[in-house]
Task: inverse folding
């Protein structure tokens, strides 16, 4: 699917294409480093919401068109529509169902999400990459939380994601000082999965995407859910959650295939069921 952005002055779209069991999402506004308009964000919400209940899908891939991943939400475009000043409380009413909903969906959807990052990943674009299960970046990619430089406080999950991934001290450097982080440091810090040279980038992305799409989808989704649950739970609570998830995953066809493959000493052929 493809949706055009808010007006002729700010063209852009989000395209979603099924490739077997993989949903390939492209942020397509390269002239503005794929910065997101209202319509593009809403399309992301719609696409990810539909994907959450599409049981034929096995993995999601998000990337940007052209030389960059995403420069965040386009505040110039989204706050100048119609030329009227937004009413008081507009952000409080709108953002939870828009930008914040995108981050929640990426983080909680029971499908593996892979982001491939070239160039800039800034603001919401940075946080979208951080919320994914795996993010691969070219060695020259840059991650940036530019909120202080714009004069407003962080959003789209940055204050939750960054401390958990890289620690509070480094999160302060990125959020309070606006420090830019190169891809190599991002990988060393544990902020992203891996950096890859440009020449091997596409093949490495496709190899990992193939592994994710070929895995036991239900068990992957339940493990992703348990990891999220464990960040706010005690050990005992996490053990209980793991037990319920184990009960569910042991009832899948992929579990039976995994056992049979082990007995036959061969690689399993999971179907995502």
Result:
């Amino acid at each position: 699917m493809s949706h055009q952005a808010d007006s002729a002055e700010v063209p852009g779209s989000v395209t979603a294409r099924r490739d077997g069991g993989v949903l390939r999402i492209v942020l397509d506004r390269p002239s503005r480093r794929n910065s997101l308009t209202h319509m593009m964000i809403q399309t992301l919400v719609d696409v990810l919401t539909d994907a959450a209940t599409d049981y034929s899908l096995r993995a999601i891939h998000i990337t940007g068109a052209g030389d960059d991943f995403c420069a965040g939400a386009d505040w110039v475009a989204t706050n100048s529509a119609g030329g009227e000043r937004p009413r008081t409380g507009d952000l409080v009413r709108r953002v939870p169902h828009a930008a914040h909903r995108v981050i929640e969906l990426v983080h909680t959807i029971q499908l593996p999400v892979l982001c491939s990052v070239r160039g800039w990943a800034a603001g919401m674009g940075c946080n979208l990459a951080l919320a994914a299960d795996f993010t691969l970046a070219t060695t020259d990619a840059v991650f940036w939380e530019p909120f202080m430089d714009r004069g407003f406080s962080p959003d789209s999950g940055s204050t939750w994601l960054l401390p958990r991934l890289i620690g509070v001290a480094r999160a302060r450097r990125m959020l309070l000082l606006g420090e830019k982080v190169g891809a190599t440091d991002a990988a060393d810090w544990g902020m992203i999965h891996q950096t890859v040279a440009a020449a091997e980038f596409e093949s490495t992305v496709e190899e990992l995407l193939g592994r994710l799409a070929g895995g036991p989808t239900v068990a992957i989704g339940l493990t992703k859910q348990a990891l999220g649950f464990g960040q706010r739970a005690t050990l005992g609570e996490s053990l209980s959650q793991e037990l319920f998830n184990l009960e569910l995953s042991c009832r899948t066809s992929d579990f039976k295939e995994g056992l049979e493959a082990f007995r036959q000493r061969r690689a399993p052929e999971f179907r995502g069921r």
Notes: Residues 1-9 have pLDDT under 50 and may be disordered. DSSP finds 13 helices and ten strands in the chain.
